[in-house]
Amino acid sequence: MAPEGNYPDDATRLQVRQVTHQAENINSYELIDADGGDLPSFEAGAHIDFYFRDGSVRQYSLCNDPADKDRYLIGVLRDINGRGGSEALHERVHPQREVFIGTPRNNFPLHEEAKRHILLAGGIGVTPMLAMAARLQSIGADFTLHYCSKSPRHAAFRRELAPMIAGGRAQLHYDGGDPTRGLDIEALLKDPEPGTHLYYCGPPGFMGAVSKFSDHWPDGTVHFEFFSAAASPKAKLTEQEFDSVSDGTVGIGFQVQIASTGALYSVPNDKSIVQVLLENGINIEVSCESGLCGTCLTRYTDGDVDHQDLILDDAKRKEFFTPCCSRSKSRVLVVDL
User: Fold this and answer.
1) What's this model's pTM, rounded to 2 decimal places?
2) How many CB atoms neighbour CB 194 within 10 A?
């Protein structure tokens, strides 16, 4: 019997086969089909939407080998200062419980054509890197995974990493809470070798450091994923600074035009484009509402977008935007709806 809750019609019901304590405040959750069937395939770097009974949604990276057909594995850090999703998982989700998830989606793909791959993980940011490392191993690619954490008890998935460490493919770096005593990111990234691609994921300070020291890398060779909007560079601005960045460029009273009908709708500063369209009978599917998941990705045909997402590269931003959080720098933004 399915548990009561507010779940989308297309959600997939799975069963929790195993919960494993991986590190301090980090559990992994193995999800399977209750009847033993195969699950939809996924690519390294993909994530799933995890649906809660109250209708809220969280995104978690899949960290098992993409070659696995019968299971998904996610790692979850219990964040007492978060929005409650991680605490609910740690407290209430146990083996044999049924859960509801969405189909895997990938905003953080591997570029398998690269000559070499450097994977940099900080804390719980190791989760997508595990799937990437598994895939790269399977195709015989050249890669190195650097995993930064405070101490051994804070480092998750050490058992899974052990073979890669023994084979020289992975390195653990412990800093005791002082980043200056850990991995020398600046030195590692100083001289990028031709054909090398960089991937990184982790907490705000880690993300900022890697971003800073990889700024000189060639275009298209640096890839990253944020776990929350709080980890993005914009989130480090004060409220006054943020207003100076976005308020003036957003433009009071900008309008969204629907390409198919020509209808115009005004978007005030206290509402998102998605909210305004919904009020006018146009529904765009959303999930994270902070530019992290790509659920609401929409094409635009004219206008200057103030991109607030954390997933699109410059090439995709020329055609697409995330109306859940992005705004318009021009007075009219024409969307392909």
Assistant:
1) 0.76
2) 8
